[in-house]
Automatic annotation (TrEMBL):
Positions of the Histone deacetylase domain: 22-324
Pathway annotation from the record: Ketone degradation; acetoin degradation
Pfam family, one: Hist_deacetyl
Protein name (Swiss-Prot/TrEMBL): Acetoin utilization protein AcuC
Assigned protein family: Belongs to the histone deacetylase family.
Domain of life of the source: Bacteria
GO molecular function (one): histone deacetylase activity
Record carries keyword S-adenosyl-L-methionine: no
The species this protein was found in: Sulfobacillus thermosulfidooxidans (strain DSM 9293 / VKM B-1269 / AT-1)
Coiled coil (residue ranges): none
Length: 391
């Protein structure tokens, strides 16, 4: 019998750790799992522990020489070895964004193993929905680390699914940063539709993701981008998503939806300029769930992604996501259990919010929101002019 949803999680996810001063801190995963547990949304039967991805699986996307380089950092001494660090530079390693750390290969492989476990569960028909909050490492390229991402779990899982099924796959990425690594991996593949909604690359890493990036060769028209203006709010972001995605899915007819749920577009996130609230992070999973049931027989794999407000935002955003995946979406009035607040408050310099939905008084005011909304509408219009089947 098909189970509705599985939560893929390993306590060893915390080994993916660039150090205490780096924004990509695994504390957010522990705090998220803790909130989901405290809310009573997870039974032991719902959880599955992943294995490390194998070399053959990593090879689906990554070059052997890159994997070999990642693997060479095993001990603390390795991470200080100047010869090794010099060689690693060619692979985007040892940078401010992607510093080296001991056993980073194992840590990266485990995040990939999590998304592959989700892929296998859905491909075998055992479950309809599967979530890996340690996944969503959408910037990693075939021969380099990028933007906190060592191995590209999403691209590897989609490639694995392409090799083990005949499915067409739609990838929907609502991280504040462009999903460049996944787009690049399937840029010429008409069987994988990638859609990325993000803050415009004019102001934010990685700088790509304009509406003109549409794919190449047979894949032309199957890479779609919705670059949003800085300070875009929930309403304009959702309007942009709704203006394109349902129509694209209706034409593309995916057999599976893979979604990336980076929550770094939140107004409290320190790294981006978008102004989403947790309302957006409740609405997106609700929409993707509905689209999965409408267009892809309920098949849905979700992954985490960015999110650098470790305790005030990420745990709430991804608890809202998991609650939707088990079809128990939280009420607008849902509150954070006091036991969770007591456990985590001392780790947060700011007071932790007490409700899942952000309070109106916490939301920043946007004096020019009308102009921003108009500019985002122009972007959607521009994209539709370029892609005939979206008109
Ligand atoms: Zn569902």
């Amino acid at each position: 019998m098909t189970q509705l949803a599985k939560f893929v999680y390993s306590p060893s996810y915390t080994q993916y750790d660039f150090g205490p001063s780096h924004p990509f801190n695994p504390l957010r995963l522990v705090a998220t799992k803790s909130l989901i547990d405290t809310m009573g949304l997870l039974t032991p039967h719902d959880t599955i522990i992943p294995d490390l991805a194998t070399f053959d699986e990593l090879f689906l996307i990554h070059q052997p020489d890159y994997i070999d380089m990642v693997q060479r950092f095993q001990t603390y001494e390795d991470t200080l070895n100047p010869n090794l660090l010099r060689l690693a530079q060619d692979y985007g390693l040892g940078t401010e964004d992607d510093p080296v750390f001991p056993k980073m290969h194992q840590a990266g492989s485990l995040a990939v193993g999590g998304t592959l476990t989700a892929a296998r569960l859905v491909a075998s028909g055992q479950v309809l929905h599967a979530l890996n909050i340690a996944g969503g490492l959408h910037h990693a390229k075939k021969a380099s680390a990028s933007g906190f991402c060592i191995y590209n779990d999403v691209a590897i899982a989609i490639k694995w699914l392409r090799e083990h099924t005949s499915w067409k796959i739609a990838y929907i990425d609502t991280d504040a940063h462009h999903g460049d690594g996944v787009q690049q991996a399937f840029y010429d593949d008409p069987h994988v539709l990638t859609i990325s909604l993000h803050e415009t690359g004019q102001y934010l890493f990685p700088g790509t993701g304009s509406v003109e990036e549409l794919g190449e060769g047979a894949g032309y028209g199957f890479s779609l981008n919705l670059p949003l203006r800085p300070y875009s709010d929930d309403e304009s972001s959702l309007e942009s998503l709704l203006s394109v995605v349902p129509q694209a899915l209706a034409v593309f007819q995916p057999d599976l939806i893979v979604s990336q749920h980076g929550c770094d577009g939140h107004f409290w996130d320190p790294l981006t300029d978008l102004l989403a609230s947790t309302y957006f992070y409740a609405q997106v999973p609700s929409l993707v769930d509905a689209w999965a049931h409408q267009f892809s027989q309920g098949r849905w794999i979700a992954v985490g992604g960015g999110g650098y407000e470790l305790l005030r935002v990420v745990p709430r955003a991804w608890t809202l996501l998991w609650a939707q995946m088990i079809h128990q979406p939280l009420a607008n009035s849902a509150t954070i259990p006091s036991s969770w607040l007591e456990q985590w408050q001392s780790s947060s310099p700011e007071p932790l919010p007490r409700t899942f939905l952000d309070r109106l008084e916490d939301r920043p005011t946007t004096p020019s929101s009308f102009a921003i909304t108009q500019q985002n509408r122009q972007t959607v219009y521009h994209l539709k002019q370029l892609v005939s089947w979206l008109q």
